């Protein structure tokens, strides 16, 4: 059954962007209403699509080069994209509403909502795209909106730099992604997912080619989902407004990488080597980010590193060839991470944009709703039963336990570290005595901010239960999670929290000081060093080419050559008329000889 | 009986004399005269060609004779310009010897 609903879902936010940018930039209230209306339309439509599984979208032809290349404008509607569309537009809607409170005094509110709508358009586009070309275009579009929104407060240098860093870093991954798409197209002759999938099985002749193609496609996800070694942009992206951090840099855009991997699983799973690399990259990211998070002081950065770490889990699941586990974790993570960010946003706004956890403290009584909901999010994040994170994380742990013991061990350490740093943040922010003036004056946020928190807290609590998973997703596995895994996970959880609580209770400042972790393994320093030297090398090479090849050889050479030949030739100007006549006669004789006798 | 080759022989001798004159004499007036001699050597051979190339009607081929008129005209123009330059040169340098006129060299 063809229907316009999927197209409305996609186009509504775009219309909102256009209207806001062209007409209502000056009326902030109108702009925000339009934007929220658009996202609600999208949400309603995607719920309807979800409810009626027979709905299909009309397909249009876009580019056709007969025989080689055709790109339709079409939408995929399968259980995966239906669920994801509901998730994206649902979390998006909640965050739009929350933004009303968070951005209420902001000068650029219209611009903010326009960009937010554009982001919703692009993100729903990624979710629904049915071919690589559309996917890539929307992929770049979310990159662009992410840039705009991170740099929303562009007059702050840190924000402007972070925006550039995010854009450029993800571009590196996207470049690989593009080549990967081209390679897949080369191998199968199609860019449409539904056409590629059956053809992949026939391509067993060139395993190396497939591995490279799969890894290059994975590159896109490395950039967008901030996996090691392109993870450096995500923590810096926290310079953007907190709702943006929640929506783009926690719940949806960064998860787009994982979603994309699941969407093109037929490419990824065609190569065992690629799968192994992906699994290990996910694992490394998870443990590295968790280690760094234990030593951060900025509440948003802690959450950013935990996002990295959880994305690592998802990528690990993809690498272990279980799309369901990855999507399950993506699903629950979207709720509890958005919740944590919005909770952090609530704290930050009440403390007049103070983000250092060592200036907070004792906020549990001042912001009770925020405290309760944040705790729910934190418990879900560390995988405490019966919150949603418990189910999804255990699904991944069990998967790792079955397939690869080394990965399982690292994942378990990550679980321990996660419990440690989350409880650390919770204890420092909400318990003990206020550590600064503003912390003692904080009061609860307005309902426009707390209601989304409560909704998300409910979802984060319930999101993991089997009936939820069964209705919205294919459940990871029907058989029970191995009891050993459960046991291990709970031990890790208790050990982590048990270590953090006594260590950080009533402390005025950080008791541990691990330089390596505090400086994030010196990745930023290393990259800037690398870039500096690459640039230096390139500059030296260009200087060499300019100075010696262009200046000396090309320019100087031609001038000196002309001069030298001139100097030689003027020697034959002897000034003797008879001499000239003689040469002239010789010339004539030579010409006659060549013309007549040869 | 005078044949074509006789005419061409005379023409060749005249041309050689002219060329030798241009090559060997130092006086510019003589050189100009020698040039004229070479031109007239060419005229002679052209006229001879014309005379000895007869079409079926018994008429000579006039194209060569037309050439000769052109050469005479050009030669007249050339000698006019050449003598004018010579006079100007003599006024400037008081000499017509080519050995003394060698300032256009490296």
Largest pleated sheet of chain B: none
Instruction: Write down the overall mean pLDDT of chain A.
Output: 85
Series of secondary-structure elements of chain A, N-terminal to C-terminal: EHHEEEHHHHHHHHHHHHHHHHHHHHHHHH
Question: What is the residue-averaged pLDDT of chain B?
Answer: 90
| Order of helical and strand elements of chain B | HHH
| DSSP E strands of chain A, number | 4
Strand composition percent of chain A: under 5%
Overall form of chain A: elongated
User: pLDDT under 50 segments of chain A (min length 5)?
Assistant: none
Task: Name the largest protein-protein interface in this structure.
Answer: A-B, 11 and 13 residues
Percent range for helical residues of chain B? over 70%
* Biggest β-sheet: strands ordered side by side in the sheet of chain A: 1-2
List keywords for this structure.
heterodimer, A: 598 residues, mainly alpha, two-stranded antiparallel sheet, 26 helices, 75% helix, B: 106 residues, Helix Hairpins, 0% strand
Characterise the protein shown here.
The complex is a heterodimer of chains A (598) and B (106). In chain A, strand 3 and strand 4 form a beta hairpin. In chain A, helix 3 runs antiparallel to helix 4. In chain A, the strands form two sheets. A two-stranded parallel sheet of chain A has the order 1-2. Chain A has a two-stranded antiparallel sheet with strand order 3-4. Chain A is mainly alpha-helical. The longest helix of chain B has 31 residues. The mean pLDDT of chain B is 90. Chains A and B meet through helix 26 of A and helix 1 of B.
What can be said about this structure in brief?
The complex is a heterodimer of chains A (598) and B (106). By secondary structure, chain A is mostly helical.
